[in-house]
């Protein structure tokens, strides 16, 4: 693999990286996002629809930005909004096959009002409608508070939503995405619709086999692991220190992998055993993809410039490939530390 597309926030830009030509070029900013240091960096996240070359950018505003990266050097941008004018805090795709027609290939977005909004494909089948449709799903347990993050089962019939009350108590809630019928094997999701989680949660991830949920938080060295089959939940310690941006860089059926400022570590989802992997040195996470993490090692930075050397690591840190240097510009530091950028392998 020699070509990559990097989707970065603050400001929103699309980068094209070609290792064979040793080049890395970025578009002009697609918007001018700002981050208030007095508030949590929430959420500045991306969701990828790989088969359609679409990327969705979420920044907690009134719209989700749909970006067509089929030509990454000249991406096209579309705004997706609800018909209620609420802010959209997170998004997720089901991504499975054989989904019921009422949820097939929809983009799900968690609203600031405690509702889950959906955006179906438009008539072209290549992009999504710019207004949510049909009526949204209300997460009653949210009591009209924001949906912090979402995970969707592959068949599109159940959503797991992160919510938090005013007193700081947080929970992962199961939402049944009706109408019926559902896959009979999925009925256990409704057996216990809510689990308590660690305080101030930031992300929820679902394993590919849909057995485990992993809930993580900013500024915490713990996570909540939920077994959706037995309905048991446990708080577990991570192998690394306090996570600046805790979303796993990869989740498989048995393990969640993390990279905290260059420190690769993992946790076994069944036992809760946490292990350190590889630590190449203090680093910023430039972007994370399905198989790799792009890092820049801070000790290789030339002071007085915005140019950083980059290296591509496997998600466990054990394989490394040096990449072209990149000029991140004056806004580089926040998104290197937040670790929310998306890396696509093309």
UniProtKB/TrEMBL annotation:
<dbReference type="InterPro" id="IPR015943">
    <property type="entry name" value="WD40/YVTN_repeat-like_dom_sf"/>
</dbReference>
<protein>
    <submittedName>
        <fullName>Uncharacterized protein</fullName>
    </submittedName>
</protein>
């Amino acid at each position: 693999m020699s070509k990559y597309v990097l989707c970065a926030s603050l400001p929103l830009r699309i980068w094209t990286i070609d290792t064979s030509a040793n080049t890395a070029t970025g578009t002009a900013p697609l918007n001018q996002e700002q981050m208030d240091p007095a508030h949590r960096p929430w959420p500045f996240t991306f969701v990828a629809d790989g088969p359609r070359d679409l990327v969705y950018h979420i920044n907690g505003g009134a719209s989700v930005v749909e970006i067509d990266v089929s030509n990454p050097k000249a991406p096209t941008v579309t705004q997706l909004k609800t018909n209620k004018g609420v802010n959209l805090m997170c998004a997720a795709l089901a991504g499975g096959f054989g989904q019921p027609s009422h949820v097939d290939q929809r983009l799900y977005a968690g609203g600031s009002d405690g509702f889950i909004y959906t955006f179906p494909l438009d008539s072209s089948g290549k992009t999504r409608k710019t207004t949510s449709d049909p009526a949204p799903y209300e997460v009653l347990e949210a009591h009209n508070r924001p949906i912090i993050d979402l995970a969707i089962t592959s068949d599109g019939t159940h959503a797991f939503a992160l919510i938090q009350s005013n007193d700081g108590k947080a929970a992962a809630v199961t939402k049944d995405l009706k109408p019926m019928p559902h896959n009979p094997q999925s009925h256990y999701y409704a057996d216990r619709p809510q689990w308590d989680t660690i305080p101030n949660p930031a992300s929820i991830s679902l394993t590919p086999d849909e057995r485990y949920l992993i809930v993580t938080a900013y500024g915490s060295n713990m996570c909540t692991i939920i077994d959706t089959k037995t309905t048991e939940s446990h708080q577990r310690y991570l192998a690394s220190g306090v996570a600046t941006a805790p979303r796993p860089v990869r989740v498989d059926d048995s393990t969640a992998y993390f990279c905290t400022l260059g420190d690769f570590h993992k946790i076994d989802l069944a036992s809760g055993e946490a292990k350190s992997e590889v630590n190449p040195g203090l680093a910023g996470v430039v972007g994370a993809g399905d198989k790799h993490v792009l890092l820049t090692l801070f000790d290789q930075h030339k002071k007085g410039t915005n140019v950083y050397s980059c290296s591509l690591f496997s998600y466990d840190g054990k394989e490394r490939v040096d990449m072209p240097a990149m000029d991140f510009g004056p806004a580089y530091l926040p998104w290197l530390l937040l670790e929310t950028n998306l890396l696509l392998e093309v």
